[in-house]
Amino acid sequence: MHSHISEESKSELGGGQGPRHVSHPEEVDFVTDPTLPGGPGPSHQSIVTEEALGRTHETPRSISPIKIIGAGWNICQSWTGVAATMAISITQGGTVAVIYGLLVIFVTMGCSAATLGELASVYPTAGGQYHWTSILAPKDMSRGLSYVCGSLNILGRIASTAGVVIIPAQQIMAIILFFDADFTPHPWHYFLIYQAANILLLLNNIFLLKETPWIHNAGFMNSLLSFFAIVITCLARSTNKQTSEFVWTTFINESGWSSDGVVLLTSLNNPNYMFGGFDGVLHLAEECSNAATAIPRALMSTIIIGFVSSFVFVIAMLYSLSDFDALLGTITGTAFNALVGTGLLLQQLTFAFLAALILYSKRNEEFLPSSRPFKLGKFGWIANVVTLAFAVLVLVFYNFPFVLPVTGGNMNYTSNVIGCMAIFMLLNWLFHAMKGYKGPRIVQSYTELSL
């Protein structure tokens, strides 16, 4: 993991005083100083903002605007996320839930990305959501809200990462079963492969990631090439194509819920997974050149490319589907479902913090100066409201059971995981962070903000 992310994580959970930056814009003036590190020109833009936020730049800016877009794509891997959860959506609403769920998520997460992008163009800092919460929140609530938002962000990232690393284990076991139908997989098989993947990724992040920034571009190209290879091969080799009526209008409710509306809303969990962790590029801001413009572009590019690739993949797979009953019989572990749901829910809550605070400030130029590179204009109101409303929907329906009647084997454990995390956050606050977490601090005074 990048070193600056570790420091932010430590601060968010109350370990130390946190990044030293501005609590409230009205308390600090800013200055344009061409002698600051970075000099004049486009790259100076984000460094001046970082200095104004009270931070000293320590990490080399080795990630170009193009590479940060590749990093955003690699973090989400949208079409592979949809592929991993597609079987769940089929049983929870059929092809209707899969296709139109993607459209709903594209709109809602697009609004969330726009909300984040606007703030990133003003405050391009690796702290992301918790940092911005401390700036936007009323003074007497700033420290507490930033702690909650930061904790949700870190815990959501842990859940999302744990869910992602399960996928290689599932894929490897699926390949084994394909070539050896008599093989009987056991939970410990999945667990060992899962931990091996964890260790390999950990070693890569510790020893190789900083020395191999090209890996973002390589991963981006590998994913796109794999996407085209799978889509083209499936369409070319499948003999009995499904009808358009089946692909676009089939609704299936095998969940046990009597309300089709509940089924559709709970099924959003699965297409939502294509954008799990897409805010990760925010936390690379201090390693990215010209971050004030590059980060918003990376966010929006991730949403657009992710949706297009996922939509094309889903349509191709549905038309190529030959054994629909086998797909309906696919079993996805409850642990995977709980981790996915937890990560997505906590992620959206951090977005809601920001949307609510922006709306509370009535999108005041005190927080969103008109000179910012990424401006939403009047659409900003819509984007903020949609982001907040979707968080409310997610908070309710992502905790619902997937299947009725509920048993220990099919229960949605998202609420249990979140409950444990909430207890941890509360105890950490009471016994440590209440005194140990200082939150943002003012360290310098300037006369004018330069963007």
Automatic annotation (TrEMBL):
Ranges where the record places region Disordered: 1-46
Pfam families from the UniProt entry: AA_permease_2 (PF13520)
Biased composition (Basic and acidic residues): 1-11
GO cellular component, one term: membrane
Intracellular or extracellular location(s): Membrane
Listed GO MF terms: transmembrane transporter activity
Keywords: Membrane, Transmembrane, Transmembrane helix, Transport
Classification via InterPro entries: AA/rel_permease1
Topology in the lipid bilayer: Multi-pass membrane protein
Residue intervals passing through the bilayer: 96-116, 154-179, 191-208, 214-236, 298-319, 339-360, 381-401, 413-431
PANTHER family: AMINO-ACID PERMEASE BAT1, TRANSPORTER, PUTATIVE (EUROFUNG)-RELATED
Protein name: Amino acid transporters
Source organism of this protein record: Talaromyces pinophilus (Penicillium pinophilum)
